[in-house]
Amino acid sequence: MIAEIGLAALWLAAALAVLQMVSGAAALRTGPAGEANPLAIYARPAAVVQAFLAVLAFLLLLRAFAITDLSLKLVASNSHSMKPLLYKLTGTWGNHEGSMLLWVGVLAASGGLLAGFEKRLPERTMGATLAVQGFVALGFYAFLLLASNPFERLPVPAAEGTGLNPLLQDIGLAIHPPTLYAGYVGLSVAFSLAMGALLTREVNPSFARVMRPWVLGAWVLLTLGITAGSYWAYYELGWGGWWFWDPVENASLMPWLAATALMHSVSVLAARDALRTWTIMLGVLAFSMSMLGTFLVRSGVLTSVHAFAVDPERGAFILGLLGLYIGGAFTIFALRAGAVAEGKRFAALSREGALVFNNVMLSAILAIVLLGTLYPLLTEAFDVRVSVGPPYFNPASAIFAIPMLLVMAVGPLLRWKSDKPARLQFELALIAALVIGVIALVSFFGRFPLLPLLGLGLAAALAVAALLPLKGRKLARVPVATWGMVLAHFGVAVSLFGMACEGAFSEEKLAAVAVGGTEQINDFAVMLDAVTPVAGPNWTAIEASLAVRQDGGEPVILTPQARNFWSPPQSTSESALLTKWNGQLYAVIGNQAEDGRWQIRIWWKPFVTFIWYGGLLIGLGGILAIAGRVKVDVTRRRAASKGDQRRADLEALGAVAPQPAE
Amino acid sequence: MRSVYLWVPLALFAFFAGLAAYMLTQEKDQFVESTMIGQPLPEFALDPAYAGLPGAAKADFTGKPRLLNIWASWCLPCIAEAPQLEALQKQGVEIVGIAIRDRPEDVANFLAKYGNPYSRIGSDAISEVQLAIGSSGVPETFVIDGKGVIRYQHIGDIRESDVPKLLAELEKAR
User: Which residues in chain A are contacts of B3 at CB distance < 8 A?
Assistant: First the structure.
């Protein structure tokens, strides 16, 4: 019964999406005297109720997983009664149908929030935005209901479920996908707003101020989602790397790149009324990239460690939706964007100029990643199988990332509209000196690969440059949003430092060790104490006990495992990490050799943790930026309502005040 | 001039959509080829999969070319290929089996029902040897030459039409 209620809620939500679409579109058609279309009043309530229904459907599926309702096909094929409760719950979105339902739930929820709380937009733009949002949601409801019904029953309930991919039985999965989905889908609101503004030609600062929190919010979620995903891949896959340029990783990176550019662009539009076309274009692009990612992952046209159950029919369906939305959006963009009045002009050397430059660089990196991700698809059309990896992605994206990072160091110091280099002589000299100085200093100590070396120099310069906007200002009076920018830019420097150190200074040791034997790496002595079998709720494992002594100090015990899950059968390598302030020791246990020795793989990765600390700082910067904007907004509204109040009071006073004697 | 640029995103997208649509209609080759072809077998020594036959080890692959068949009693295509393995064995080919994640009683049942073409069967309870020789599924069949070098990989069940190819590869490995 529960499942049927969920299904019914989905159908109702789809019907409301139609209403929202029609009613929103009606708002565009005003009467002859300019009065609102009577149909238009339904768009907002339809969006709110639809949000409630879609979220309800998701919660009902969550319940079915919690109680392991094996009469549901989805539960039977993705869960198991023996699984810990937490992983039963996360299993809800560890599969195609459930994750699509989560996608749609977040989509509807953000549409509902927009409809329920956003009062600043002109009603016509709001109507157009909600119509687009309804149209997008409708496509995904159709996809769920017609091609991936999560509530499908089995004719006969299964005796036991078949389990969940053991790689996904991890706390990382509890947070990482929902965060990313919320980010992707937040971009759908930016997309709908961009389309709405394009349709009504109201691309102006007040529109940008409405769009900005959505873009910032989505961007923060994407940043945190990618950071968490990278860390998950790092410790769970046991390969010792933190970014693999896997198609699915790229699918999350591309919307992030577009959203980063969009976030900066929308800020310029809000503050300076410039970059109108850019903002619209990036708004469409950012959501296109989220949808493209969905298509690439689920259609099976590309092979990836992340691949969901592959189904060409579903692929065709998503491709159809992609063609409809993205093709449609780009067509409207091509037809309409020319008609959007040009924004304010600015000199090449100005804050706007720097932001445009970095938008171009971000777009170029996006193009590089997109090309690399799709290239295998292109060559496979000619029956050539290739796999594109770091040798392409690293240098190709660095070509654009390096100038971008340099401009990023200088950009926040520039004035709006136009500026003179002479004014920034000291800052420019400092940045240049830091880049060159650090590179020279590091090269003095040894030979390191070029990219990490450049990364170290840029990280140092950027870390200092990020703080320069605070120079000579009363810190207590710096706006919260500016703190956000400073923190986020500083976070980029921290993350870059981590990446460069990992690339330049990592040490690796692969050894066959007998029990009792010791290996030395950096200043750690690693002794293999024992190898014992251990058992968990749904796995068995071989666990090594490694005693790690730094400089002969007290030993710390690390316990990497080689796990075997039996439902479904799969083996995973559980790494063990020893985190120090200046890096991580990363240990993995391999097979036993003929002579009884064990393969142990150990890395010392200096400052590797800074990659993710940096990611967190960037996300925190974004949160501060949102908080700052909201604070300003609330203060402004309060001041406005106080003003209104006073005016009303004065009027009331005036009405009863005794007339001056004549 | 500006208006021409505005069409660029649509043109790029149209190209992608066309390519993706074409690729979706293409039959996808999902086979993962072993990178171990041309390499010697990794060291292994597996216990017998059931009481009737000895286990399998690298040391068994000496003297003449043999087939190494990765299979399991729970695998349906393995039933389909059983007659072809039988036919190969009748032509004097020695077949060493490795049973993946299997139980002795199931192995015995399978052999009783569908015939036993094997000279030895090792039990690989955790797919360790399977992964080490670069096999990603069941069934797969490898041609191993007299020096223990992997010479050829056949992915999926052996159909009747595949038998001459396997015999030719065995001849080549001699």
Answer: 334, 338
Q: Determine the pLDDT at residue A365.
A: 94
Chain B neighbors of A337, CB-CB under 8 A: 6
A600 assigned to some structural domain: yes
Is there a single domain that holds both residue A522 and residue A429?
Answer: no
Let me know whether A487 and A540 are in one domain. no
Q: Are residues A531 and A479 in the same domain?
A: no
Q: B7 CA to chain A: closest CA distance, Å? A: 5
On whether residue A242 sits in a domain, the answer given is: no
Interface of A with B (CB under 8 A): 277, 281, 284-285, 288, 292, 295, 299-301, 312, 315-316, 319, 322-323, 326-327, 330-331, 333-334, 337-338, 374, 377-378, 380-381, 564, 569, 571, 591, 593-594
Nearest to A334 among B7, B20, B45 (CB): B7
Q: How many cross-chain Cβ pairs, A to B, lie less than 8 Å apart?
A: 67
Instruction: Give A155 or A312, the one with higher predicted confidence.
Output: A155
How many whole angstroms separate alpha carbon A148 and alpha carbon A155? 17
- The partner residue sitting opposite A337, judged by closest CB among B6, B14, B24, is B6
- A355 occurs within a structural domain: no
pLDDT score of A588 more than 60: yes
The domain boundary, picked from A169, A185, A216, lies at: A169
Give me the domain span that covers residue A641.
Answer: 420-505+610-652
Distance from CA of A285 to the nearest CA of B (A): 9
User: Are both A96 and A24 inside the same structural domain?
Assistant: yes
Q: Please indicate, yes or no, whether residues A19 and A64 belong to a single structural domain of this protein.
A: yes
Q: Determine which helix (DSSP H) or strand (DSSP E) holds A605, and give its type and residue range.
A: strand A598-606
Per the domain annotation, does A62 fall within a domain?
yes
Which domains does chain B show, CATH number per domain? Answer: 45-172 (3.40.30.10)
Task: Convert the pLDDT of each residue in A413-443 to its tens digit.
Answer: 888 888 888 888 888 999 999 999 999 998 8
Give tens-digit pLDDT for A337-393.
877 777 788 888 888 889 999 999 999 999 999 999 888 888 877 777 777 888 889
Residue B32: pLDDT band with limits 50, 70, 90: low
- CA-wise closest residue to A282 among A242, A333, A319, A331: A333
Instruction: Report the number of distinct structural domains present in chain A.
Output: 3
- Confidence (pLDDT) at A301: 67
pLDDT tops 60 at residue A308: no
Long-range contacts, A65-72 (Cβ 8 Å, 24+): A65/A89, A65/A91, A65/A92, A65/A98, A68/A161, A69/A2, A69/A3, A70/A154, A70/A157, A70/A158, A70/A159, A70/A160, A70/A161, A71/A3, A71/A153, A71/A154, A71/A157, A71/A158, A72/A3, A72/A151, A72/A152, A72/A153, A72/A154
Is 60 exceeded by the pLDDT of residue A71?
A: yes
Task: Specify whether A468 is located in the same domain as A572.
Answer: no
* Residue type present at position A431: I
**Tens digit of each residue's pLDDT (9 = 90 or more) over A116-157:** 888 888 888 888 999 999 999 999 999 999 888 889 888 878
Closest Cβ opposite residue A330 in set B13, B22, B25: B13
Contacts of B136 in chain A (CB under 8 A): none
Please report residues of B whose CB lies closer than 8 A to that of A288: 13
Nearest CA in chain A to B46: A594
- Other beta carbons within 10 angstroms of residue A318's beta carbon come to 25
Task: Say yes or no for a CB contact (<8 Å) between A333 and B6.
Answer: yes
Residue A593 has pLDDT above 90, yes or no: no
Residue A34 in tokens: 């300019």
